[in-house]
Amino acid sequence: MSKKDLIEGEIAPEEAKHLLYLMVLTRAFEENAEEMYALGKVHGTMHLSIGQEAIAAGASSAITRNDYLLNTHRGHGHFLAWGGDLKRMMSEFLGKENGYCRGRGGSMHIADVESNNLGANGIVAGNLPIAVGVGLSIKIRKTNQVALTLFGDGAANEGAFHESLNMASIWNLPVIYLCENNLYAMSTPFDQAFKIEEISQRAIAYGIKGLTVDGNDVFAVHKAVREAAERARKGDGPTLIEAITYRWRGHSKSDRQAYRTREEVKAWMEKDPIPRFAAKIGVDDKEMEKIKEQVKQDIQKAVEFAEASPEPDVSTILEGVYA
User: Fold this and answer.
1) According to the 3-state scheme, what is the secondary structure of the chain?
2) What is the tens place of the pLDDT at every residue in 269-321?
3) Is the pLDDT of residue 159 over 70?
4) How many of the other CB atoms lie within 10 Å of CB of 81?
């Protein structure tokens, strides 16, 4: 395929339509999970990424499945974009035995190690030091892989963030740090937690590449991650990417969102990344309706599968517990 056959010189048309499907699927999955939570079918809590779907689509398409993904607690979209099975994912949410983690992980700790998806992490910035270990393993084994690790703006003020970037820098590790800056660390506005204008500026302190992109633009995210992966594979070390976006829902299900106005949320909803991407790749309203209908059917099948799946046997409750 020649360069002129690619949309914006980066993504093939069929792949672009698949990414659009994944974005619509992610939103529908989370809206459905939200409804099931209200019905008491999903336990614990959830951190929804509705409004942030462009980052998962852009990042997942920029690296290979031979690489590694280390996810955050707001990572359903990344899991699906990595190729996660919708039925097994829904089963995990409902705590069923045939879920990815046998129903033990749920929303915040879902993983699929066999596909190099090393899992989500409920500890803020908890996945960043792990990414250093993965990056070191890649370097020692000389496999030419990269590790992509996701985190929010709140994690950028944790000590683990600084320690991880410093170590990855001095060891020149193939790690891509992708910060999903949705402008609020739980309820703290970005400008109250940072003196700098962009989180990517912190890359300067570690002597690595840093850049800020529009997180609601699939192509901008894709390009940034792809180029970071190219640098890492050449031995040029880690990259810090900041993707500016916005979550439409609260931080978690217990969040009343008293810290922001309805007008602010509405203004960001008008920047919806899904119709924006559809317009860029030439998908009209008729074709979009077909995609939404397919997603609706896929979600329904997954729900039916999950609800019919077996509950974990109580006698196995301590399996996998090591401490």
Assistant:
1) CCHHHCECCCECHHHHHHHHHHHHHHHHHHHHHHHHHHCCCCCCCCCCCCCCHHHHHHHHCCCCCCCEEECCCCCHHHHHHCCCCHHHHHHHHCCCCCCCCCCCCCCCCCCEHHHCECCCCCCCCCHHHHHHHHHHHHHHHCCCCCEEEEEEHHHHHCHHHHHHHHHHHHCCCCEEEEEEECCEECCEEHHHHCCCCCHHHHHHHHCCEEEEEECCCHHHHHHHHHHHHHHHHCCCCCEEEEEECCCCCCCCCCCCCCCCCHHHHHHHHCCCHHHHHHHHCCCCHHHHHHHHHHHHHHHHHHHHHHHHCCCCCHHHCCCCCCC
2) 999 999 999 999 999 999 999 999 999 999 999 999 999 999 999 999 888 88
3) yes
4) 24
Q: What is the pLDDT of residues 46-81, one digit of tens each?
A: 899 999 999 999 999 999 999 999 999 999 999 999
For 114-156, how does the pLDDT look when each residue is reduced to its tens digit (9 = 90+)? 999 999 998 999 999 999 999 999 999 999 999 999 999 999 9
Amino acid at 146: V
| Residue 322 or 50, more confident | 50
What amino acid is encoded at 167 in this protein? M
| Amino acid at the residue 306 | A
Buried-exposed string 156-178: b where 16+ CB fall within 10 A, e elsewhere: bebebbbebbebbbeebbbbbbb
CB distance 32 to 248 below 8 Å: no
- Can you give the pLDDT at residue 323? 73
Cα dist. 73→106, 108, 300 in Å? 10, 5, 24
